[in-house]
Automatic annotation (TrEMBL):
One function term, GO molecular function aspect: heme binding
Protein name per Swiss-Prot or TrEMBL: Catalase
Bias kind Basic and acidic residues: ranges: 1-18
Region described as Disordered: spans on this chain: 1-33
EC number, UniProt record: 1.11.1.6
Reactions performed catalytically: 2 H2O2 = O2 + 2 H2O
Residues covered by the Catalase core domain: 23-411
Amino acid sequence: MSRKKDELNQRDTIDNTKDAPLTTNQGLPVSEDEFSLKAGKRGPTLMEDFHFREKMTHFDHERIPERIVHARGFGVHGEFEVYESLEKYTKAKFLTEPGKKTPVFVRFSTVGGSRGSMDIPRDVRGFATKFYTDEGNFDLVGNNMPVFFMQDAIKFPDFVHAVKPEPHNEIPQAASAHNTFWDWVAENSESAHMVMWLMSDRAIPRSYSMMEGFGVHTFRLVNAEGKSRFVKFHWKPVEGTHQVLWDEAQIINGKNIDFNRQTLWENIENGHPAEFELGLQIIEEDQEHEMDFDILDPTKLWPEEDVPVQIVGKMTLDQNVDNYFAETEQVAFHPGHVVPGIDFSNDPLLQGRLFSYTDTQLIRLGGPNFHQIPINRPICPFTNNQRDGYGQMSIHKGQTAHHKNRMNNNQPEPLSAEEGGYEHYQEKVEGNKVRARSESFEDHFSQAKMFLNSLSDTERQHLSDAFSFELAKCDMDIRNNAIEKLLNNIDRDLAEYVADRTGAELPAENEESTYEKSSPALSMMNTKFSLNTRTVGVIITPDVTEDTLKETRSKLEEKGLQVKFISDKIYTIGSTTIDETLATVHSVLFDSMIVISGEEDLQPPVIEQLEIAFKHKKAIGFGGNVSFAKLSFSEKDKGVSNIETELDNFLEDVKNHRVWDR
């Protein structure tokens, strides 16, 4: 167990698990909490009932505005430790002191949906990390995709308006498959690269612990000598990067809209932390213009084959929140929360975010003191001349609240960089005031084609089908425009496929991107594979013995799998209780399925579950006297194994995530 919550004990904690009397907000013990104060048993409620008024008033005001984007989130505590000192690159202490553990809080999220939407829409995932360092909070506010839809922050409101439910009828929820989104991306070709990511399997992650994280923007690292380098931040999941299938995602959203958050919560509760390694891509300042794109362009990534990712540390997320609202909902991230040794670049999207994030917290959290909310407080002392305002939680001593001052010996006193004060990197900046875009940002299609070039045949098929699904939900003129202005400029074969599948008009051939570069790191097939946190649903018939159940559970859990026994109803076999029924779970909620049968034939609900698991290319195991007579597949098919004689084969198929060549 990490120590992050011990470090955050500045916050006031009320432990409602302990015996205590019920009181009002003022601490007055309450003798009755079921009936309001009335004039007689059947009379009117009296205004003097202060307990009723206090309770109801709080209830009436206990909701705050949800985030405009990233409304549906899930947070978890952990800690970060750097492997080796990075003092060559930065003076940030949490990156230069190996062995020091820095508390972190991470909020994973979807982007487009409301707070009550589902966990697995086709969407970008937020991956925001707050480091509670000894020098102040550092927020790495990123996504599970390394690029974004626009190059300049002034377009962000337009994009969000387009991807949100359409304003005339508030439909569809948490989905990009509609007219306004595809109208916007087709008319704003800088979105081409990001749309490829959104239509890929990256947009439907298997779990929060199985997706990459990216800082998206180009930042600066500055060392103690004042030397600056450009940097991009990466989070690499220890369990690898994996997905669900789109057909599977749609069923999951019907069976369990909390699938991703529940998976993370249960894994942590069961002692399986989510682990990510921090990686840095670094470019020397004098190499800024050596790439075939502008490194400040947020719609471009730095290919890992050209700029290797240096793994520098590890984050372990191993403690769930105590209260969702107080922590996950009230946490406030900001890309402008930095520490000495980390600075900004001139990325125009980043520059706009540096304004926007403070502004949005003011309305969501009720004023300028949101940094004093316990989940947002630094663990280091903070002293300044800010006073008053909504939600002021500190009592400030002394007369002065101004700088400079003589009355208080100029305290609090600014520090020099040598003393730990933050100083911005002294970059030379000059130019005319213009509303314009650098010519180096004008290539919108090369990296979109590079992304396509990098995919396996399976991933490419998934992407093509995703485009077809989305555009088929749009009006015909929107389809035609998106294929002509977007897909036809990326890849002619892709444009032809989607036009054919959606009944759209195939535009005339034009000069599609001829970019031949590929980047193997972009394929999710080139990732790590592990049995850790993998799940298996074991369907049994009532005539299976307890010894068989115990032996099966023991063998599978020994290898790291999480086992659920499933039958037609909840009952007990000896000391073993069935976990779920065929009505309460579904094969889409598991990574793999096993069926164990005695002499009974498989019933239709069992057959349905197995057929869908086979369709979704999952590993399938069997034991006992299972008959395949009523199934469309047999024990000879790929990824179908007898767990009594071929357990290793089954485990290998589960580890590899899917039986893609089935």
